[in-house]
Design a protein that fits this description.
Blueprint lengths: L2 H6 L15 E5 L4 H6 L10 H7 L20 E5 L13 H18 L3 E5 L1 H8 L7 E7 L2 E6 L11 H19 L1
Parallel strand pairs: 1-2, 1-3, 3-5
Antiparallel strand pairs: 4-5
């Protein structure tokens, strides 16, 4: 994809992969320019979301971003805190995150997933005003939906390897499965 094509995707909004009754609704920070250009979540090369989703046991094989619609068959979905595509998350300001948090809460109240999994604890902290949040399950709920903060799967997040991320995502998978049993 050319740099011009990527820049043309700036501020693009891509459709959510959602339905009512999901087990887990994964929530990214915001789409990358690659996601905006392709219309697929977590499409940037180097993003570890799809490998980690498989390594953690959420999917039986590693899906490609273009196969994102298959998530619904596993009772999984994807949305974002902020809908517009940018080159970097630091292009978003705190008010945009807070407004995104308000819109996300309304979406979660309507769809009622068992779990909302925000992939990026800093985004969670800003969107929901919880400066002390850590990776893992949160005390905060949205209606009956439990909330879990997960590590950001961006390749820029060097603090977490794919394996350590998969372990944390796996903890959520076990919690989500036990809620369905």
């Amino acid at each position: 994809m050319s740099p011009e094509e990527l820049q043309a995707a700036r501020d693009t909004v891509i459709p959510d992969v959602i339905a009512g009754g999901l087990s887990v609704l994964f929530c990214g920070i915001n789409p990358s320019l690659m996601s905006g250009a392709t219309g697929h979540h977590f499409a940037r090369p180097g993003n570890r979301f799809w490998p980690v989703l498989h390594l953690s046991g959420f999917t039986p094989r590693q899906l490609k971003p273009s196969e994102q619609g298959e998530l619904l068959s596993y009772r999984l979905g994807i949305t974002n805190v902020v809908a517009r595509a940018t080159a970097r998350a630091d292009e978003l300001d705190a008010e945009e995150f807070r407004e995104g948090g308000r819109l996300l809460a309304a979406k979660v109240e309507r769809l009622r997933p068992h779990w909302l999994a925000v992939v990026g604890v800093t985004a969670y902290r800003t969107a929901f005003g919880d400066r002390r949040a850590q990776i893992g399950p949160q005390d905060h709920t949205i209606g009956t939906t439990r909330v879990w903060a997960l590590p950001n799967p961006s390749g820029l997040n060097a603090h977490w390897t794919a394996q350590t991320m998969a372990e944390e995502y796996g903890r959520l998978r076990v919690a989500a499965q036990s809620a369905l049993d």
